[in-house]
Amino acid sequence: TETRTTGAHGGAIGMHGIKKWFGNFQAVNDVSLEIRSNEFFTLLGPSGCGKTTLLRMIAGFELPTEGQVLLDGTDISRLLPNQRPVNTVFQNYALFPHLTVAENIGFGLKMLGKPKSEIDSVVGDMLKLVHLDGRGNNPVTQLSGGQQQRVALARALAPRPKVLLLDEPLSALDLKLRKSMQVELKRLQTETGITFVFVTHDQEEALTMSDRIAVMSTGTVRQIGSPWDIYDRPSERFVADFIGETNFLEADVVSVSGDKARVRLSSGAEISATYPEGVTPQGKVTIVIRPEHARLGPPGSGVLEGAIHTIVYLGTDNHFHVTIDDGKTFTVRQQNANSAPCGFSVGERISVAINDDVAQILRD
Ligand code: ATP
């Protein structure tokens, strides 16, 4: 498109056996991952899991204690930040308050000694790209928070990096603005073809924008996959629990065939479940079922029997907390599709049915 800002493809990043120690504290413990060219890749995890440290090692602000960072196959581990075709957008976008919008966007190019005509042309493209045409001469301080964040993005994109690193860039914005900036960021990434590496602790943000997500915990990568893989096929309890609400059930493996296993629930009913690569399901296992993948029905109609403990009305849907007959709690989420009362009452005996192909066995 006319706003495409890079002829070159986005860079591919390889991180191989990365370890990072701060004194005697290990922040990153043997991380290896491949980020593909033109990908929107997200590092997702709770505070302190090491995602910012990984990002800073791609940028060159930190050096790995062990391991290599490759860009398009070339080892860049020891290069200074300004020697890497990589740029970073930070949470506190750190614009220069005494400069105009255009001067902020062109700042990096000016530092690189680019001629004025080239700077003007790139800044013009960038203003269009972030939908701030006509605002170039405004002082940045006159812009709203969301507009300032777009200036910060334009400034980082202007030197046409091969990779753009984004460290929680939306967390200072209010919810509504954050949602619209998520869509905007995804569009910018697609239009520029630049590889984006995005850091967040917000699972919904990660699911919304990413081509692939690496879920991290205490310095390690727990699972890498598409949003669907991560949400619908979590390989372990931490990932299932971190990404949204979920039910864990104990079950016994009855048989395995192809990529499916038959498992027996505490009620005696059997269902089919998928399992992670490299796992041979046997004996007692834990399975995951998302609340929206189950539904309520009259006693005897499903695979788990119990009684409704609580009903939470959320506008778009209802959450039913069910006490199943083995004493555990199971949550069912049903869409409020008919704009009518849910038709169930607290204390009522019900049965929980589980949709086909939704149960997932976890790695031990
Ligand atoms: P957050 O979202 O809170 O920034 P994070 O997942 O990005 O979390 P990091 O910032 O990468 O986590 O930090 C990982 C761990 O390393 C934390 O326990 C942090 O305190 C520690 N750490 C990070 N930088 C340093 C440093 N320069 N010196 C000492 N410890 C550090």
From TrEMBL:
Ranges for domain ABC transporter: 13-243
CDD domains to which the protein is assigned, alphabetical: ABC_PotA_N
InterPro entries: AAA+_ATPase, ABC_SmlMolc_Importer, ABC_transporter-like_ATP-bd, ABC_transporter-like_CS, Mo/tungstate-bd_C_term_dom, NA-bd_OB-fold, P-loop_NTPase, PotA-like
Enzyme Commission number: 7.6.2.11
Swiss-Prot/TrEMBL keywords: ATP-binding, Cell membrane, Membrane, Nucleotide-binding, Translocase, Transport
Quaternary organization: The complex is composed of two ATP-binding proteins (PotA), two transmembrane proteins (PotB and PotC) and a solute-binding protein (PotD).
Family: Belongs to the ABC transporter superfamily. Spermidine/putrescine importer (TC 3.A.1.11.1) family.
Protein name: Spermidine/putrescine import ATP-binding protein PotA
Species of origin: Shinella lacus
Gene of this entry: potA
